[in-house]
Amino acid sequence: MHHRSQRVSQSAVRPTWGTCAIACLLTAAVVAGVWVTLGWRSTPTLLQPDPTATGTLEVSSSDFTDPREVTFTPTLEAGFSVKTVAAGVLTGFTCTPGAEVSSGERIATIDNRPVVVLATASPLWRDLWIGTKGPDVEDLTGELVRLGRLSDDQAGRELTRTAMKAAVELTGRGGEALTYGDALFIPSPTARVGSCEARVGDTLTAGTALLTLTPTIEDLHTTTDLTGSVPGERLVHLAGQSAPLVQGRVTDPAFLQGLLDTGIIPVTGADGSGDPFTLPATVELSVPLEVLSVPAASITVHDSTACVGVDGEATEVQVVSSTLGRTLVTFTDPPARIDLTPPPRCR
Question: Is 97 left (phi over 0), alpha (psi -120 to 50) or beta?
Fold first, then answer.
């Protein structure tokens, strides 16, 4: 007998979800062989080819999402402290632990001057006048657009009269200048109050904390190995919510805030202290695959290609999953019936 050697490229032997599933199928066949070799009276029915299976089998499609159990670790950021810039007497203060605070909202008065919070890209650091230019003006006008107080074409790096009017109307002060102490920085458009640090009547100095926001979640990340899973975009399902999984991370702000609101994530130790905390979740395909369940014995595997017979012709399939006796496959054009007899080889 002559043996031929064939050089196989590295990419040709790299495992994929299809080849992994095929391997499971071949393993089932090996198990069946062991039963026969060891002399048991009968091969398990699910593994035993039917020598009389010469007809066809009606098949129907179903959805397959390839669900996987995954463990996630949250990255927590400590609660942000909202601090005053101007000194004075706190003459009015709206603060309730657990309440939501939003960018553009007036939260206090200091010496009867209204103070708002703004989720600009970076804190305002100087007084702004009509004609002032710079990245801080761009940040301010961008947030005014998001709040619906300016149109896109009215934003920019120079503070126009229109933009100034929108800014001072937001603070409720009027005039032609925005004092940076009138707008306090918050790191996100919406946040939740963790604790109130000041009371009406307090004498404040620059840098006095008014309130502290609850800790936030920067992301959920996982190191669970998803090798062998079906390729495709995936969703994470956790605590009755869903969000996209992108490169092992979940960053959807509404999803992450919703997790905090459920109370399933302890916020103590958000400064990095305490033991690591993990969350079990389910990850599955965002768009289900249309699969057909066929008998394992009806499939032929040839040169890493799987196929079944349809009207006597070998038809290539992609093996998605395999259990003893049954295999889930996808077709380019799903048939209504398949041949029970496997084709001698794949084309």
Answer: beta
Q: What is the mean pLDDT of residues 273-293?
A: 87
Sheet bearing 183-185, strands edge to edge: 183-185, 113-118, 106-110, 88-93, 203-204
Q: Where are any strands of DSSP class E within 103-189? A: 106-110, 113-118, 128-129, 177-178, 183-185
* 160 in Cβ contact with 130 (< 8 Å): yes
Residue 185: name the closest of 92, 84, 112, 256 by CA. Answer: 84
Question: pTM to 2 decimals?
Answer: 0.60
- Cα 297 from Cα 53, distance rounded (Å): 10
Using DSSP, state whether 186 is helix, strand or coil. Answer: coil
φ, ψ of residue 254 to 5 degrees: the values are: -65, -40
DSSP for residue 55:
S
Higher pLDDT, 129 or 261: 129
Q: What is the DSSP string of 215-254?
A: PEEEEEE-----TTSPPS-EEEEETTEEEEEBTTEE--HH
Q: How far apart are CA 319 and CA 316, in angstroms?
A: 10
Q: Given a cut of 80, is residue 41 above it in pLDDT?
A: no
Q: Which residue has the tokens 């306090």?
A: 184
Per-residue pLDDT averaged across 163-167, rounded? 95
- Chain centroid to Cα 209, Å, comes to 34
HSE-up (13 A, CA, CB side) for residue 213: 25
Q: What is the DSSP letter of 278?
A: -
Question: Any idea what the Cα angle at residue 292 is, between residues 287 and 297, rounded to 5°?
Answer: 140
Q: Residue 232: pLDDT above 60? A: yes
Nearest to 108 by CA among 15, 27, 186: 186
pLDDT value for 25: 45
Looking at residue 266, its pLDDT comes to: 72
Alpha carbon distance 151, 145 (integer Å): 6
Closest CA to 60 of 343, 314, 338: 338
